[in-house]
């Protein structure tokens, strides 16, 4: 029986980072639309339809406006994907049985650990900058749009450490849930398909199958985690410290003042982005690993 190929942690880190960067750039307009829909609207005449929102902003402000906050998001996405896959592979190695296989519950546990790790190290700072930049862009007098570097530096100085990490709890909850479901379901489906086709557990799936499995893994996370994502966005908006005293207070206030359905604003563009990102990330990750090996 051939020896199971082990994934080199450094290769996993590089492959994950590359996949995260590509996915971030390709899907960012969806992320922009989702965040704008979740924020308290400062422009009464702006459409709440995500496709109309994207089209209107592209027409009136230029395509570049759809990439407001994108540099921070891509840097965070690159770091997030690297930390996620490195952490997932390391935890998976610890939890795998003697044959190198990972059961469903252990796959979920590995994904949960990877999600918590990435939320603190990469996601919270990047999401805070991205959200604040998008919120600032819709203001009557934007303060941080003068330049990518200068605007970001000014924003970070104004937010401070406390402002950057204001949404760390909802970010951690969202990332843990996302990673547990996406990575756990991806691993379970991949293992099932390999066993059904008597394929070597160390061999990658075909590109089309990897894309399909990754997309499905992204799909199932959206609606269940949407309320956490909306609270995260509100907690990271400019002036959120004056509106919400805590994550729970934010959740209760949105529910009382705006209604239950508000938690699912932005679900459509998030669904589009996650379906695409699941396929893109896993496909590029597997292909980069093949190149590095």
Number of helices: 11
* Weakly predicted, low-confidence segments: none
Following the backbone from N to C, one meets helices and strands in this order, namely HHHHHHHHHHH
Name the average pLDDT. Answer: 84
User: Major sheet, described briefly?
Assistant: none
Q: Got a strand count?
A: 0
Cα-to-Cα separation, first versus last residue: 21 Å
* Category by helix and strand content: mainly alpha
**Roughly what fraction of the amino acids lie in strands?**
under 5%
Gyration radius over CA = 19 Å
- Helix fraction by DSSP (H/I, runs of at least 4): over 70%
Shape type: globular
Q: Could you explain how this protein is built, in words?
A:
This protein has helices spanning 9-38, 50-61, 70-95, 104-137, 148-164, 168-196, 207-219, 222-235, 240-243, 247-258, 267-292. The model has no long low-confidence stretch (mean pLDDT 84). The protein is globular and about 60 Å long. The chain has 293 residues and is mainly α.
Features:
293 residues; mainly alpha; 11 helices; 74% helix; globular
Helices and strands, with pairings:
Layout: H1 9-38, H2 50-61, H3 70-95, H4 104-137, H5 148-164, H6 168-196, H7 207-219, H8 222-235, H9 240-243, H10 247-258, H11 267-292
Summarize the model shown:
The protein has 293 residues and is mainly alpha-helical. It is 74% helix and 0% strand.
